[in-house]
Amino acid sequence: MREMSVREQLHGFPDDLENALGWKPNRCECDGVLLCGMGGSAISGAIVADFYSEKSAVPLVTVKDYSIPAWAGEKTLAIVSSYSGNTLETLKMYESAKKAGCRIVALTSGGKLKDMCERDGHLVKPLPQNMQPRHSIGFMIGYTMALLDGCGCVCVSDRMNAVVESVKGFRDYLESPEGDEMIDRMVDEMSGCVPVIMASGPMQSVAFRWKTQINENSKFVAFCGSFSEYNCDSICEWAQKNNKNMALVTIGAFGENVAVNAPRRVIVNEGRGDLVEEALRSLMIGDYVSMRMAEKRGIDPESVIPIKSLKKKLSQMPDFDRA
Questions:
Q1: Between the CA of residue 99 and those of 35, 102, 104, 143, 261, what are the distances in Å?
Q2: What is the model's pTM?
Q3: Which has fewest Cβ within 10 Å: 21, 32, 141, 210?
Q4: Which ranges constitute the DSSP H helices of 42-110?
């Protein structure tokens, strides 16, 4: 696969998702699922877990640490995601899952994770080469959902397939003059402020995606949280009317009913009566907003030098048990 620009990778999200949903892995009965990963490779697991959380009888747990839960065992499916295949924390998760006897499937473009899985006889679903890890999310969401459909979880991928064409149309809208203008308005509203992105329930992973995309694409600080935490912990701060350096971004219909004195406010409400479609549309808006923020600040959205530096330093650390 040729190396694509980040703009091309962003454009390809709905198509990547559609292609990945077509995968039909062998059935695998399990009593629990671990969605393991870090950074951009972990976002897909969080989003999928939110999709399934209210309907799946099989528990899904996201893991973003060196070790896995003590209850994991032979009837646990561990989906280990690392685009590069060399993320230290994710390799530790793999080792922990292997030690616990879990059934393991790796989503990766190569690296040590691919080598370890092939050595140990575990399934590897290859990801395309030459992508930014955070922009491989379409493939990772689709492949993860395909695996869950085959392991006793309630089938959500049918709902996903049903909205793919609509999501493609929304992508085309975001890249039209009208969509471009909407993105510009949102970016201008946040200009000079720290975005604080809030959502409720199964949209919290989308809020986290907004935060990380602003962090990585725009190289700008951002925070995220849930409406329930906001109501308990943060409303007094906003009520002080002195938060001129912060912009409140609310995702979902509930956000329109949050009464605060935020000087800067962006409301994202793409509700279409379907959680999956709303989440995907809201996610895409965040991706396009973060790219526009980078462009307006004269920032290269592709460069992630600090992350590469951190990974290099972690790889040089002594190999000790961090669990």
A1: 16, 8, 11, 24, 52
A2: 0.88
A3: 32
A4: 43-52, 88-100
For residue 16 the two structure tokens come to: 């990547």
Of 37-46, 230-239, 260-269, 284-293, least confident by mean pLDDT is: 230-239
CB atoms within 10 A of CB 307: 14
Residue type, 9: Q
- Rg of the chain over CA atoms, in angstroms? 20
Q: Cα–Cα distance between 167 and 242 in angstroms, integer?
A: 38
DSSP 4: P
What count of other Cβ atoms lies within 10 Å of the Cβ of residue 294? 23
Q: Which of 182, 172, 217, 205 is nearest to 279 (CA)?
A: 205
CB 284 within 8 A of CB 174: yes
Domains of the chain: 6-159 (3.40.50.10490), 178-297 (3.40.50.10490)
Residue 33: phi and psi, rounded to 5, are -130, 130
pLDDT band with cut points at 50, 70 and 90 for residue 41 = confident
Burial class (CB in 10 A: 0-12, 13-18, 19+), 271: middle
The Cα-based distances of 64 to 38, 40, 94, 291, 308 in angstroms read 6, 11, 12, 26, 18
**Tokens encoding 123:** 């399934």
* C-alpha to C-alpha distance for 206 and 188, rounded to whole angstroms: 21
Listed range (63-67, 149-153, 269-273, 302-306) with the worst mean pLDDT: 302-306
